[in-house]
Amino acid sequence: MLEPSNNNELPVIPEKRYFTIGEVSELCGVKPHVLRYWEQEFTDLSPVKRRGNRRYYQRHEVLMIRQIRALLYEQGYTISGARAHLMSDNSKEDINSSKQLIHQMIAELEDILQLLK
């Protein structure tokens, strides 16, 4: 298992659609019981469950786990602090995408206005 300070030494994530909890454990340097605990604490982290309640994580969830790991183990966040940090990142992304959409709509409306003149 990797030491908390070695996040940059984590293995490359293979090009797969789904990962088992064991694979994610190795890819992220976190034990499976920690991953199961984080699922309870971080609502965005919800792997698909199939036969026999087996968990299958998708690539974006593996990346999120690596981010959570970095926040907790390297940057010293608490669980609630890491949760708040991730939520604020998501809201910033939503605001930026909304601004882009508004600017795009304004440009299209200005083009239509020019055509009508």
Describe the structure.
This protein has 117 residues and is mainly alpha-helical. Mean pLDDT is 85; it is low at 1-6. Strand 2 and strand 3 (54-58) form a beta hairpin. It has four helices and three strands. It has helices spanning 21-28, 32-41, 59-74, 79-116, and strands spanning 18-20, 48-50, 54-58. Strands 1-3-2 form a three-stranded antiparallel sheet. The relative contact order is 0.12. The longest helix is centred in the C-terminal third of the chain and has 38 residues, at 79-116. The chain is elongated, with a radius of gyration of 20 Å. It has a single domain, classed as Orthogonal Bundle (Multidrug-efflux Transporter Regulator, Chain: A, Domain 2), CATH 1.10.1660.10.
Total strand count, please? Answer: 3
- Trace the largest sheet across and list its strands: 1-3-2
Task: State the share of residues found in helices, binned by percent.
Answer: 55-70%
Q: Would you list the SSEs in sequence order as H and E? A: EHHEEHH
Topology:
Elements (H helix, E strand, L loop, with lengths): L17 E3 H8 L3 H10 L6 E3 L3 E5 H16 L4 H38 L1
Antiparallel strand pairs: 1-3, 2-3
Short description:
With 117 residues, this protein is mainly alpha-helical. It has helices at 21-28, 32-41, 59-74, 79-116; strands at residues 18-20, 48-50, 54-58.
Fill in the keyword field for this structure:
disordered N terminus; 3 strands; mainly alpha; Multidrug-efflux Transporter Regulator, Chain: A, Domain 2; three-stranded antiparallel β-sheet; 9% strand; 117 residues; single chain
